[in-house]
Amino acid sequence: QVQLVQSGAEVKKPGSSVKVSCKASGGTFSSYTISWVRQAPGQGLEWMGRIIPILGIANYAQKFQGRVTITADKSTSTAYMELSSLRSEDTAVYYCARADLSGSSPYFDYWGQGTLVTVSS
Amino acid sequence: QSVLTQPPSVSGAPGQRVTISCTGSSSNIGAGYDVHWYQQLPGTAPKLLIYGNSNRPSGVPDRFSGSKSGTSASLAITGLQAEDEADYYCQSYDSSLSGSSVFGGGTKLTVL
Question: Could you tell me which residues of chain B have a Cβ less than 8 Å from any Cβ in chain A?
Fold first, then answer.
């Protein structure tokens, strides 16, 4: 049974950074990619970027370039998403999601439970 | 403004059929990239509903079906049930955005 378990809710000040973790179990971590998708209150889904754990290579949506860093620790099957220079508009639920390595248009078959990040002074 | 365009809302009575459209462009759906669909119930994570344009994961009822043509895709739900009331999102890949996955803005389905 594949599971992605994320770290708990965070409250951050504007200008600070947040790091959210996503621990995978029940599958072969290095055989998949892990993406991060966020959802602001009452809004839709927004893809932020992904990492290929077996290669340690990440790519990011243009909107988040320079502000987001996605990493992975193969030894613990855990992916991380760090977002810096936080502003109120970054208040959202952040999800990690798994996709197959192959295929030109990957789809997300398993999702984490979501982590609420609140940015407030 | 989402890269993929969906209607904000659709509705239907129990037992009816509804469709949700997803319109893209020549750099995503029109370029031949597959479209996938997700269902999101209130307060929960999205769930994969359709992958590869028209394939259902194990456990998804055959009341849900997907199709794709040109720069658009559609999700059809037949025999509408109260538990189908949720938000639905389409997703694909866009070659013009540094290799990004892209989502539609989402469609709220109301079962009357």
Answer: 2, 33-36, 38, 40, 45-48, 51-52, 57, 89, 91-93, 97-106
